[in-house]
Design goal:
It is found in: Secreted, Extracellular space. One of its GO terms (biological process) is proteolysis. Pfam families: Peptidase_S8, Pro-kuma_activ. With 564 residues, the chain is an alpha/beta fold. It folds into two domains: 125 residues, no CATH class; 355 residues, Peptidase S8/S53 domain (Rossmann fold), CATH 3.40.50. Helices cover 28% and strands 21% of the residues. It contains 15 helices and 27 strands. Strands 12, 13, 14, 15, 17, 19, 20 and 23 form an eight-stranded mixed sheet that branches. The longest helix has 21 residues. The protein is globular, with a radius of gyration of 24 Å. The N terminus is likely disordered.
Length: 564
C-alpha cells in the first residue's frame, strides 16, 4: 500500500491552485518516416476522438516465457502441464503500482480507462486529438495511401511522463500503420503441368489438372478419415475483414468431396467485436478455411471465429484476449491472415506476441499462414529488401509455408524469411544456423541473419477446390496449407485426449526436436516471388529453410512421435 499511496500523494502534489503541473515527458516510441507509399495529408481535426489502448507492463513476462518453453519441450518433466486461466493471468497481470501510476496520470488529464484484457494489462481510453497531442507530446495527423484511398490518423512519435517508464509499455495505435492493401486475397492460378503421380487409382493422379481435394490430401499425408471421438477437442478458424462462410456452400463441398461425412456438419460461431456471418456475402478465404478444416478434421468440433472492426492489428489483439477470457479456448486456432512486420510498432508486436505466449502456455496451438509474397511480404510487386510478415515472425506461434507438385517442391509464393523484431528462438538455433552456413554471404544485407526464421513447416498450397457462390474455384496460397496443418494437429489431439494425454499446445519445441523426423523434407524450389525484375529469394534445401520450414506432415509418423 505504501507505493500506491506515494502515487496518490504525487498526484495531489501536481495540483497547484487547481492547475495541473506538467510532467516531464520523454519520447517513448518514434518512427523515422512514414511507411512506403503513405503520404502526410495534414493535421488531424482536434475534435476527432481517438480510441487508444494502453499496455501496462506485465509483472513477469520472462517467467511466462520460461514456463511456456518448459511445458512445451518433450524432454521436460513438465511437458504438457499447461497453465490454468488464473495461472497464466498471474504472469501477465501488471503490478498494482503500475496500474495506479498509469491511472493517476490519466486522471490528471480527466480521463477514465476501461479494462480490456483478462489479466488487466490492456486498458482503453477515449480521447480527442487535441488532448492526446498535449498529454503525449504527439502530432496526430491524417495519412493517406493514394493507391487505395486509405486514410488513417497516426503520429510519428509520442512521449510519456518519465516516471511512467517501466509501468507503461506502449500506447496503440500511434506509430503502427494499417496495411494499405488489407489482406492479400488467395492466389488464383492456372492449372497446368503434369503430376509425376502415375497411379490412375491414386486420388492425386490428376491433381495438377483438376486441383487439390481432401481425398488427395488424405492420401498425400496419411490423414485418417475415421471420425474423431473426443467432444471437448475443438478446432477454430479466424476470419477478418467481412469474410463469412456459407452453410449451403459447405454442404455442397461435403457432398462432393466428403460423401462419407454428414453434409449438414457445420461450425459453431464465436463473435468478437460484433463479427457476423452473413449468408449472402460468402468470402473465398472463409470458404477455404472452413471447408478444409471441417472436411479434413473429420468430426472434430469446429469453431468459426468472426471478428468485426476495420483495424486488423486491433482485431488480432482482440481475438487473442477474447480467447484468453475463455475457460476452455479451442486447442487449435488457424489463421490465414498477416501483414508486413514493419507496419507494426515493435513494442506492439512484442506485446501481442507475448499474448500468444499466454495462449500457448494454456495449451493452445496457434497456426498462421506465412504469407503469399515470397520474401516480399505483402508488397504489391517488387522489393529490394526482404520484408518479414507478422504474426509469422512471432516465435510463439507456428508458421506454415506452401508447396506444389507431387513429389512436392516449394512454391514460389511461399512466405518466408527472418524477423527484424524478434531474435532467433533457442528451439531453432541449430536448424537456422545450418541454413545460414549453407547460403553463406549470398543475399547478405537483404535480411536479418539473427532474426526468428519462418515458416516452421509447410503443406501443399496450390489449386484447392473450394465451393463458393455455388461455384467451384481453384484457390492457392499459404491460406491452404495453414488449415491443413491445423486439421492434422486437431486429429492428433483427438488421439492424445482419447489416450488420456494432454494436447500438443505450442508446437515448435516439439517440431524442431522429436517431431522433425516425422516430416518430409522439401529440398527443391524457392520463394523468389519478389517481382519480375529482381528474381531473388531463398532456396529450399536439406533441413530447415525459410521457404518450407522443416517440411510437410506424415500423419502416422507424427502419431508415433507423440507416443501413440
Amino acid at each position: 500500500m505504501l507505493h500506491v499511496s506515494c502515487v496518490l500523494v504525487a498526484l495531489c502534489c501536481s495540483l497547484v491552485s487547481g492547475r495541473i503541473v506538467p510532467r516531464t515527458l520523454q519520447v517513448h516510441e518514434a518512427r523515422e518516416s512514414v511507411p512506403n507509399g503513405y503520404q502526410l495529408t495534414g493535421p488531424a481535426s482536434p475534435d476527432t476522438v481517438l480510441s487508444l489502448r494502453i499496455a501496462i507492463t506485465s509483472n513477469d513476462t520472462d517467467g511466462l516465457i520460461d514456463v511456456l518453453y518448459d511445458i512445451s519441450t518433450p524432454s521436460s518433466a513438465n511437458y504438457g502441464k499447461y497453465l490454468t486461466k488464473a495461472e497464466a493471468e498471474a504472469y501477465a497481470a501488471p503490478n498494482p503500482d503500475s496500474v495506479a501510476a498509469v491511472n493517476a496520470w490519466l486522471s490528471e488529464n480527466g480521463l477514465e480507462s476501461t479494462t480490456l484484457s483478462p489479466a488487466g494489462d490492456w486498458i482503453g481510453i477515449q480521447v480527442p486529438v487535441s488532448k492526446a497531442n498535449d498529454m503525449l507530446n504527439a502530432s496526430f495527423s491524417v495519412f493517406t495511401y493514394p493507391k487505395t484511398g486509405l486514410t488513417t490518423v497516426r503520429t510519428l512519435s509520442y512521449s510519456i511522463p518519465s516516471d511512467l517508464k517501466g509501468h507503461l509499455d506502449l500506447v496503440h495505435p500511434t506509430i503502427s500503420f494499417p496495411d494499405p492493401n488489407a489482406r492479400t486475397p488467395p492466389v488464383t492460378r492456372v492449372l497446368g503441368g503434369p503430376s509425376t503421380e502415375t497411379s490412375s487409382s491414386s486420388p492425386c493422379a490428376d491433381v495438377n489438372d483438376n486441383g487439390m481435394t481432401p481425398a488427395c490430401l488424405q492420401y498425400l499425408y496419411g490423414i485418417p478419415t475415421t471420425p474423431a471421438t473426443v467432444s471437448t477437442n475443438r478446432l477454430a478458424v479466424t476470419e477478418y475483414e467481412d469474410e463469412y462462410f456459407n452453410q449451403t456452400d459447405l454442404q455442397t463441398f461435403l457432398q462432393t468431396f466428403r460423401p462419407d461425412m454428414n453434409s449438414s456438419t457445420t461450425l459453431s460461431i464465436f463473435s468478437i467485436d460484433g463479427g457476423l456471418n452473413l449468408q449472402n456475402e460468402t468470402g473465398l478465404e472463409a470458404a477455404l478455411d472452413t471447408e478444409y478444416t471441417v472436411g479434413l478434421a473429420t468430426n472434430v468440433p469446429a469453431v468459426f471465429i468472426t471478428v468485426g472492426g476495420e483495424d486488423f492489428q486491433q482485431a488480432l489483439l482482440d481475438t487473442a484476449t477474447a480467447l484468453l477470457a475463455e475457460d476452455s479456448p479451442p486447442q487449435v486456432v488457424s489463421t490465414s491472415y498477416g501483414e508486413d512486420e514493419d507496419l507494426l510498432a515493435p513494442a506492439f508486436a512484442q506485446k501481442l506476441c507475448n499474448t500468444y505466449a499466454q495462449l500457448g502456455a494454456r495449451g493452445v496451438s496457434l497456426i498462421f499462414s506465412s504469407g503469399d509474397g515470397g520474401v516480399s511480404g505483402n508488397q504489391e510487386s517488387q522489393c529490394r529488401v526482404f520484408v518479414p510478415v507478422f504474426p509469422s515472425a512471432c516465435p510463439y506461434i507456428t508458421s506454415v509455408g506452401a508447396t506444389t507438385q507431387i513429389p512436392e517442391v516449394a512454391v514460389d509464393f511461399s512466405g518466408g524469411g527472418f524477423s527484424n523484431y524478434f531474435l532467433r528462438p533457442v528451439y531453432q538455433e541449430t536448424a537456422v544456423t545450418d541454413y545460414l552456413l549453407y547460403i553463406g554471404t549470398n543475399m547478405s544485407g537483404l535480411y536479418n541473419a539473427v532474426g526468428r526464421g519462418y515458416p516452421d513447416v509447410s503443406a501443399y498450397g496450390v489449386d484447392f477446390e473450394v465451393v463458393a457462390y455455388d461455384f467451384t474455384f481453384g484457390v492457392s496460397g499459404t491460406s491452404c496449407s495453414a488449415p491443413t496443418w491445423a486439421s492434422i494437429i486437431a486429429l492428433l489431439n483427438d488421439r492424445l485426449l482419447a489416450a488420456g494425454k494432454p494436447v500438443l499446445g505450442f508446437l515448435n519445441p516439439w517440431l524442431y526436436s522429436t517431431g522433425a523426423s516425422a516430416l518430409t523434407d522439401i529440398v527443391y524450389g524457392n520463394n523468389d516471388a519478389c517481382g519480375p525484375y529482381y528474381n531473388i529469394g531463398f532456396d529450399a534445401t536439406t533441413g530447415w529453410d525459410p521457404v518450407t520450414g522443416l517440411g510437410t506432415p506424415k500423419f502416422a509418423s507424427l502419431l508415433s512421435s507423440v507416443g501413440l
